[in-house]
Amino acid sequence: MKYTRLTKEQLEELHQEFINFLASQSITATEWQEIKTNKPEVAEQELDVFSDLIWEGVLAKVEYIEHISKQQLFLFKINEDHMSLIGIKVENEAIDIRTKEGYQWLQQNLLEEQVTLFTSTKAISEDRNKDIFVLIQQGGNITKGQLYEFFNERLENK
């Protein structure tokens, strides 16, 4: 298995897609029940293959990832051959940028001494999707990139 197995909840959400996946392998509902009962290891393998297929499809479309903690913000833009990072660190222990108030404070104090901004780029490896998956495993969330673009614009106009 290349990624991780989808959770029970995710599999339930993708019930129809899983049925289509089984059908593409000429496995009927009756045969699937039989496999689950008599060959649980084969059923596990099918779930793993399906999970990897779903992950591949999702990861191929990812353009932005955000990882937000109390005082740090890591914003990634994923391109074909590299990823760009905007990193923000707040040096004020009283500020929690995950809250509305903390985020407003950050916007108003972005260029102050208590805020460290940095950017970086990193080449994408041969396995782009695996690079993205690692960021997600570390707590990143797939987004549409509004935060990245907001801060990128601020940095360009600095």
Automatic annotation (TrEMBL):
Domain of life: Bacteria
Pfam families: DUF6495
InterPro entries reported for this sequence: DUF6495 (IPR045470)
Protein known as: Histidyl-tRNA synthetase
Source organism: Mesonia hippocampi
